[in-house]
Every structure is written in structure tokens, then in C-alpha cells.
């Protein structure tokens, strides 16, 4: 199976490096992505928006001969959902890692502080305690050393969707910061943050208790969870 791995904000393809061995050992072909503007700290980010990141994922889907599995972490969840919407017939399953599908008109996070065209990794105190579970001082230092500013447009642009066949693509949600029971409660209560997820026809939920960056805090367990999601087909 071809598995396309889309990182969250401030991260490039190498952020999946401790997860991919488990996927490769299970016989899968992995395609961790570095999205436009994330090539380096000095890469130009002016004019890069959410659609550019979605289009980059779609281009990889189109380059592969068979149907794919998409994996999106954090803000990457909105990106893979846009790619599912663009190519619903080419995606076998979408896996959301501590994230979910972003509905029409939604933005990933327009509250993050921007500096010109950049959204740098902010100080840790901007994050909730739940985000930082298991993220040791050493892991925090390594994360900050590798962090690349996110293009402002990716954080602030509205999502635009066009094909309701996206609701037919099976989904796995891997929850880290909160239990599955909380997510189901939000869906039942009609919370707007999960309105798009509530419309998907086939959803499975997996708990991986840790903070918001399991690719750093529990990479082997995350790899196993992705393998299990793929094996449902």
C-alpha cells in the first residue's frame, strides 16, 4: 500500500522518520511529504496558501498507480481532507492523527501569531497542557531546532470543498490528547469543530494517549496504529 504522510505545522517529511520503519516493516511504501514553504527556514512563503498544500498532496496521489492511504497530523488533517475531496476515488482511507477533517469555510488556526508571511513555532506556553504530554525537555528542544515557519496562508485560508463523495471515504481518527468518548460526545452534541467528521459514513476511532505530537512521543505505537488502520482493507 502507498501511504502518504502529511505533517502538521512547522514540520517537514523528516518528522515521520521514527514512524516510517514500522510501516515499511509491514510491507508498505511510504511517502512522507515536505510541503511548499517548509523546505527550509529560509524558503519563500509569500503567497503559499492552504490550496497549495492540498494541491501538493493531490500531485503525489496522481503520480501513484493505485489507490492510496492518506495520513494527516494536526493541521495536516485539513490538508488531507482537501485532497480526499479532490480525489475521492483515489483514496482508500484517510487517517487523522490528533486531527480531523476541516469543513467548508473553516480555517486551521488563524489565532497563531504571524510575522509577515510566516507563522513561527510559538512559545510552549501558548499550548494547552494536554498538547505537551510526554514531550520532554529534550524532545521540545529537538522539535524547536527542526521547526520551520508555517506559511501564514495555510493557517488562515478558508477550506473550500466540492465533492460530497468525500463522505464515502473511510476514516480512522487516532486521538491522543483526549479520549474517544469525548470526541463522540462532541459529535452527539453537534459541536461545530466536528461537523464534517459527523457526516462521514465510515469512521473508526483509536486511542493513543499522549500529547499532540505522537510521532515524537510514541512513534512506534503511532506506526502500529497506522498499520492497523491500513489492514482493515
TrEMBL record:
Pfam families associated with the record: Abhydrolase_6
InterPro entries: AB_hydrolase_1, AB_hydrolase_fold, Sec-Metab_Biosynth_Hydrolase
Annotated AB hydrolase-1 domain residues: 3-222
Keywords: Hydrolase
Any GO MF annotation of the entry: hydrolase activity
PANTHER family (UniProt xref): AB HYDROLASE-1 DOMAIN-CONTAINING PROTEIN-RELATED (PTHR37017), ESTERASE_LIPASE_THIOESTERASE DOMAIN-CONTAINING PROTEIN (PTHR37017:SF11)
This protein's name: Alpha/beta hydrolase
